[in-house]
Amino acid sequence: MKKKFGLSLVFVGKADTPYDYIVVDHKNKTVFKGGEFLSIKELLQFEDATTRFTKIKQTIEDLLADNPTLTTADINRILYRQFGTRIHRGTVSWNDETIQLRPEVTEQLRQNYLASRGIHPSAHTATNRNPLPPQGDNRGNDIHVQSPASAVAAATNREWELNGNMDMSVDDEEAQRRKWRR
Fold this sequence. Notes:
Elements: H1 2-5, E1 7-13, E2 18-25, E3 30-33, H2 40-43, H3 49-66, H4 72-83, E4 87-88, E5 91-94, E6 97-100, H5 103-116, H6 148-156, H7 173-181
Antiparallel strand pairs: 1-2, 2-3, 4-5, 5-6
């Protein structure tokens, strides 16, 4: 590059693991920070997407084999450090290409997440626990008529808003301020 274009790259850091680089323009006698053109992670990627995705999948499966209780957040920390990517909704993206993880892996990660939150995985289902009553064809009708009995039940049974603690005062602003100060 120096002979043909008058440019050279100077890497900063250790020989095997540089953390930045500088572009020197010998012809115009100027120096640029390398990150202005291309990040160091992208510059050091010499693999094609297929090889990279194979390594990412293998890393995820190895991590889960070593520790079957890892959550997506745990794996994402490692993936971001090693590959500059993360798992999002069962997919991994890199350089505008996306792959879908195996359903077994996605389900294991979902179960691990639920277990980490103290939710029993078998009790949790993806179904709606409070389904709305079936509506007719109301495409143009924005008005929902509620029966008086269901209106009373909706007004009195608001335990879900209080996280199961019915004796908690919603209007106690001072308690809320103390909670947020912690």
